[in-house]
Every structure is written in structure tokens, then in C-alpha cells.
Amino acid sequence: MIEFAEVSKRYPNGQEALKRVNFELADGEMAFLTGHSGAGKSTLLKLICLMERATSGQVVVNNKNLNRTSRRKIPGVRRNIGMIFQDHRLLFDRTVFDNVALPLMIEGYPHREIGRRVRAALDKVGLLSKEKHSPIMLSGGEQQRVGIARAVVNKPPLLLADEPTGNLDPELSAEIMHLFEQFNQVGVSLLIASHDLSLIAQMHYRTLVMKEGRLVQDQVDSLEQDSE
Ligand code: ADP
Ligand code: ADP
After folding, report:
1. N or C end: fewer C-beta atoms under 10 angstroms in the chain?
2. 81, 184, 186: which to mutate for ligand 2, most atoms within 8 A of CB?
3. Do residues 126 and 139 lie in contact, with contact meaning Cβ atoms separated by under 8 Å?
4. What is the pLDDT of residues 192-221, one digit of tens each?
5. Which ligand is nearest to the Cα of residue 212, counting in written order?
């Protein structure tokens, strides 16, 4: 699903955010990406969804070499990736339903299909009863679940999450992780950036550790290191 080969990223100001990163994420795999603030986690995710371009090396996503993707084809790449952000980026002047419907409206889906898909997505995150609410009226955990529904509404094969539980207490964070697991169980690939090591340790998933732009560890099971 994702392949990085000797990928480096230098920002225009000279900051080297990624240094010769190599890894693969298989189809249907779920993995965590961790490391201190500034380690390069967000940058790595941004290269996958073409919010940034690699300076050197090769990024392949869903069998497409992103080095060769023209600006015009970026929307096509993003259509296959659901993105979840720490601040969930919801529109507070629209209902929950409209927030989740947004990606489908942009794609020009027929009205009935939008209704069906939005309700299916809200059902998956347990928020069907709140479709007419404004996100302002929801708790932090619920807002994040709306963000997740929006990310999965067009059923992308890959979900990327950047600190999805950054603003949530441990219990709500665990709930969000459980949701991610459910998507993984139906075949969705996930790469989840988080610096919450105790949360990662509760889950038994591959964990990629970054430090100063380098991938310094790649563990099959997060507990091997953090169980003491
Ligand atoms: P993380 O997500 O692990 O906190 P980032 O990928 O955000 O790490 O940042 C990696 C490094 O790149 C940091 O030193 C950060 O300051 C720098 N950086 C991130 N974005 C930019 C940018 N747009 N311009 C310049 N430097 C940046
Ligand atoms: P249809 O495929 O006709 O649109 P549904 O919307 O009911 O039917 O989805 C069928 C199944 O596919 C659901 O059980 C759903 O969990 C699963 N599924 C597959 N890929 C995804 C994805 N990216 N996000 C959410 N669910 C998915």
C-alpha cells in the first residue's frame, strides 16, 4: 500500500525533516508511527497524501509512484486516502451530516447515494442519532468520530491519522483506536502517527519509531519494548 525508498525531505528553509527513510506498509496492514515532536511524523504523512513532495527518493502509494504524479492528478490520489487530523477540521456552521457528506458532494455523487453513504459512515462511528446536530454541540471524542466518518465515507483503502487522540483523555483515545481496528478488520490499511506511547503499548501493532528525521526502529509488536 505504501512504499518509501531512501526518501528525504528538505523544506525550503533548509530544515531536513526526513533522512533516507525506508519502509513498506502492506495492503491491509495497520501500524503506528511514533517519535518526539519534530521527529518527522507529519512530514512523512504529508508525503503520502501529496501535501508535500519528497526532495529525493521514491514514494509509492497504492501502486502509484508519487514522484511522477502531476499536480492535476493529486485529487485522484487523495480520493484513495482518508485523512484524520488532531483538530478534526470540522465546519462548525454545518451539520454533522453535511460535514461527512462534503467529500461526496465535491465528487458529485447523486443525492440518494450521499444520504446512504453518510448514514452508513455515521453508523460505523456510532453517531447516526446526531446527524442534524452542529459539531459545536458534540464532545471532543464525538467531534473526532465525525472526522473519522468523513475520512471513511468514500471508503478509501488507506487511512492516515495525525495525532488523532491528541486532545482526548485515555478512555476516549482507546475508543478511537478501537474504531481504527474495526476499519482494519474489513481490510483498510492504516498508518497512525501518535506520540502517546502508553496508548500504543496497549495495542498490539507494528510500530515505526522516528528520531530526527530517521526511522530508527521498526517493531512488529508495540509491546515488546514498552511492556516492562
Ligand atoms: P512531527 O510530526 O514528528 O512533530 P514534523 O514532520 O512536523 O514532525 O517536523 C519535522 C521537522 O521539520 C521539524 O524540525 C519541523 O520544525 C520541520 N518542519 C515541518 N514543517 C515544516 C515547514 N513547512 N517548513 C520548514 N520546516 C518544517
Ligand atoms: P457498499 O459496498 O454497497 O457501499 P456498505 O456501505 O454497507 O456497502 O459497505 C460494505 C462493507 O464494506 C461494510 O461492512 C464496511 O465496513 C466495509 N468497508 C470496506 N472498506 C471500507 C472503508 N474504507 N471504510 C469503511 N468501511 C469499509
Report:
1. C
2. 186
3. no
4. 999 999 899 988 899 999 999 999 999 887
5. 1
